[in-house]
Write a structure and sequence with these properties.
With 141 residues, the protein is α/β, with parallel strands linked by helices. Helices cover 21% and strands 34% of the residues. The protein is globular.
Length: 141
Amino acid sequence: MQRVTSAEVRVSGRVVGAIDSGLLAFVGMERGDDDASVERMAGRIAGYRMFADEQGRMNRSVRDVGGSVLLVSQFTLAADTGKGLRPSFSRAAEPQEARRLCDALAAGLRDSGLPVAEGEFGADMQVSLVNDGPVTFLINL
């Protein structure tokens, strides 16, 4: 997850998702991820304290600051890079299941009251962002 002042995703030159201040979340679904995993991830994204309070401490969540979330599916995050010079994607969820889980994650975030924009699952996407801080966290379940 990256704290951003703006972010957008383009596919074939057209903007498919964009936000102003909030979080850009790159999401990689792995084999074994399920609805319970998605529910926990939605809670983590919505509640993770990445934004500064009055004292400059990271004590506020995207929900607290009225921000938005841009979700971008990225199967390469599930790569095994432990050996050799070529990644293995054997840990990545099957595309149909990964799409279902990504859709469920977006729905869960919307249900929590957050504005959510999305990339296009499986597409060749160009992502532009202005990282605020920079602040970037890797969240594993």
